[in-house]
Amino acid sequence: MADQPDIATVVAARAGDPAAIDRLVAGYMPLVYTIVGRALEGHADVDDVVQDVMLRVLRNLGDLREPESFRSWLVAITVRQVRERFRARRGAPDALLHEDVRDPGADFTDLAITRLELSGQRRETAEATRWLDEDNRELLSLWWLEASGELTRDEIVEATEVTRQHAAVRIQRMKGQLETARAVVRALNAQPACPDLRLLTVPWDGTPGALWRKRIARHTRDCSYCSPSWNNLVAAERLLAGMALVPIPAALTGKVVAAKTVVGGGTHLAAKIGLGVSQKVLTAALSTVAVAGAATAVVVIRQDPPPSTPTAAVLATQSTAPRRTPSATPATASPTPSPSPTPAKTSKKPVVIAAKASKKKGVGVWEFTGVKAALADVGAGWYYNWAPNNDSVPGPSGVEFVPMIWGKANVTDGTIAQAKKESEGELLGFNEPDMGGQANMSVEDALADWPKLQATGLRLGSPAVAYGGDTAGGWLDRFMTGATDKGYRVDFITLHWYGSDFSDAAVNQFLGYVDAVHKRYGKPIWITEYGLMNFSGSPKYPSDAQKVAFISGSTKGLESRSFVERYAWFGLPAVGDSVDFGLYKDGDSPTAAGQAYKAAG
């Protein structure tokens, strides 16, 4: 942890001790600045938000009942102010200034690279943060501090006001997006540049964003020149370990002015700093407020850990566990008979697994070499790709494609017409609307758009929640209650599930959740994503034997439940960023998990 004031200082500051208040603000200003700066990357309003945070902290310090919780309280206030600024900015023109006139402290990535002298993979990771979605930048600002030892997971949970499990899932998915962004940064910075990538990015204006992150990442996975961008990515936690807070830039320290401040009923003289290039003077309703700063964090820079083992970057979820080469692949050729008449030594005949076809069995699919052959080989009855059409991943004859309306932005006449045209009778609703970084929709927004999906006349699956499908008052429960009240149609319930317990108990944990959701709503069930991944601990992925045991037990249980109509493993490809959990390395090379899934049905 950084050298921050102790509880005694908080108690004294709460009582109005001017020296203690100065130490408290000076000690915690770097933490607030780091959270706000990274969350609001590239905008000139960082100093305003820091100012607002410190105003609120000092104005309400007297009401803090538990001094030991000061830091958690401070972080929670900081996150709320960041969110308020995000909300205000959504309805206003983009506040990103031209680089020639931007406050040198406004571009937090440039500042971090310069002030912390980042190089190598640390620099790549810092540059990659520019490519994150808005919600993930906020979460990154907290997780970055957790990884560097400045915050605890409990403080992140309290600040984000979600459960510990939800926080773990959100962090894991943010890390997945960060790893993808790191590969994008590498590919764009490669020398000499990839000719195909240069051609792809001709229309790009150079501004990092979600659309171009996805386009460039897709290219890197398919391009033999760019695919090494995914190799030897040192786990972000290892890169951040030991790094201190980013020092406050000079523009934020400003001119110190004496002023009277009311805190906890006491009056004292304190330092008041100007913020930003305009040297703003802090004011508050309580006459004046103290904001002391100018503290500089000690920066400890370590060499990058040796990139001995690459890490896995997952499409929708991320782990920092080293990649493991699948230990078993099927042999398809018959052994050559021994010319010797004596049976003293014979080689074992390779095991060739025949696929069991099942209408229930499906997979989540994204582009990779051999996708059509793999879909046929695994015996899948259906598949989906989180999209309204399968143009990028056409399947073989006889394997049903199920379209999805992913989120609110996809509820357009054109997209819905496309999905209806592609469907053989079913349509999947929104993808993880309860998750920031995914569809991220309120129940009210989802219900408002539902009639448009219902109008297709297709059998319609509920929005696929990331967790808590069996929870009273949870996202899915509120959606289903609203749909019933409005007379909307939901033909089956769609679920996602990921387990972090890799023991034999995992099968019953998973099936128990499926049973509980069915009992709650009494409708058919589709599980459109499931697997074993530990989002917040180690090991991140199960062994091959554990994956095989879980797949065998879970698919047997799903096949035996008449109310389970479909299930889909996440996911089919076991290449690049998905080698630790995918099923196929190419069209006819299943992993150990792929062999088990192939045999299921």
From TrEMBL:
Domain RNA polymerase sigma-70 region: 24-90
InterPro entries: ASL1, Asl1_glyco_hydro_catalytic, GH, RNA_pol_sigma-70_dom, RNA_pol_sigma70_ECF_CS, RNA_pol_sigma70_r2, RNA_pol_sigma_r2
One Gene Ontology biological process: fungal-type cell wall polysaccharide metabolic process
Cited Gene3D superfamilies: 1.10.1740.10, Glycosidases (3.20.20.80)
Alphabetized UniProt keyword annotations: DNA-binding, Sigma factor, Transcription, Transcription regulation
Biased composition regions of type Low complexity, renumbered to the chain: 319-335
Region (Disordered): 306-349
Gene Ontology MF annotations: DNA binding; sigma factor activity
Pfam families: Glyco_hydro_cc (PF11790), Sigma70_r2 (PF04542)
Asl1-like glycosyl hydrolase catalytic domain: residues covered: 379-597
Family, per entry: Belongs to the sigma-70 factor family. ECF subfamily.
Protein's name according to its UniProt entry: RNA polymerase sigma factor
